[in-house]
Design brief:
Blueprint lengths: L11 E2 L16 E5 L7 E6 L10 H15 L6 E6 L11 H5 L3 H18 L4 H4 L12 H9 L1 H10 L5 H7 L14 H13 L4 H14 L4 H15 L3 H12 L9
Parallel strand pairs: 3-4
Antiparallel strand pairs: 1-2, 2-3
Helix pairs in contact: 1-3, 5-6, 9-10
Length: 261
């Protein structure tokens, strides 16, 4: 059961993140909100482009990159959630109507920026799959991420056919971690994501960050090199206050109080 007393701060459009906007004015497609109370440390990014079903257009991508750049420097952010402000839609993929108006050079620049965005948010390749039905191939990393997730044969099948997957099918393939039954409000997936964020939040932030580095970098190299990367990350974690606090809490049979140092 979710905590009913969770305190919320207002959504903040980019460029005026310190204001008390309700997030409904100004036409911002990406908005940011830091949770408070027991969920302090969790920050949400709201994708709010209803007329295009959150399709990845120029403004959308620019504002998302700006938000991620700012949040990357914010030491208070422990867990980041992406959620949709458009009911029934997360992200419709590339904005092909906008793309159609671009020159070949402009498309190249945009796809390069989009590939960087996908790397930043460690997005799955599923966003790019539907493009094959419109004469395109995934250009934001789908041809590289999907084989790593599902294997070469299945990745080729999905990309070559442009097949759309339901949440249940994606879960069965191992492409997503969880599926949930929809609720009346249409935000069941968000609540499942928030529950997962609440599990991550009390963990040692340096250990979580270094664990992410070890996994992401290790997947790009052979197992021997991956072990070396893990060793370097482990060595960085050894002298931290949080590791000593974790050991002391285990010894004293109490919950640890991590501070990110």
């Amino acid at each position: 059961m979710l905590r009913a007393l969770r305190l919320l701060r207002p959504w903040r459009p980019l460029g005026v993140r310190g204001c008390t906007s309700d997030g409904t004015s100004g036409g911002h497609e990406i908005q940011v909100r830091a949770l408070a109370g027991p969920d302090q440390g969790i920050t949400e990014i709201l994708m709010n482009r209803p007329h295009a079903r959150n399709a990845l257009g120029n403004i959308f991508v620019s504002e998302m990159l700006d938000a991620l750049a700012r949040l990357r420097e914010d030491q208070k952010v422990r867990v980041l959630l992406f959620r949709s402000g458009v009911k029934g839609v997360f992200c419709a993929g590339a904005d092909l109507k906008e793309r159609e108006q671009m020159s070949a050079a402009e498309v190249g620049v945009f796809v390069q920026r989009l590939r960087g965005l996908m790397n930043d948010i460690a997005s799955s390749a599923i966003m790019g799959l539907i493009e094959t039905t419109r004469g395109l191939l995934p250009g934001a990393g789908g041809t590289q991420r999907l084989p790593r997730c599902l294997g070469v044969a299945l990745a080729k099948e999905l990309i070559f056919t442009g097949r759309r997957l339901s949440g249940v099918q994606a879960h069965a393939l191992g492409l997503v971690n969880h599926t949930v039954d929809q609720n009346k409000e249409g935000d069941a997936a968000y609540h499942r994501a928030l529950a997962l964020a609440q599990e991550i939040l009390p963990q040692a932030p340096i250990a979580v960050r270094l664990g992410k580095v070890a996994i992401d970098r290790g997947m790009e190299v052979d197992i021997t090199s991956g072990m070396a990367i893990e060793g370097m990350c482990y060595a960085q974690n050894i002298p931290t206050q949080d590791r000593l606090e974790g050991m002391a809490a285990f010894r004293e049979k109490r919950p640890p109080e991590f501070v990110g140092k």
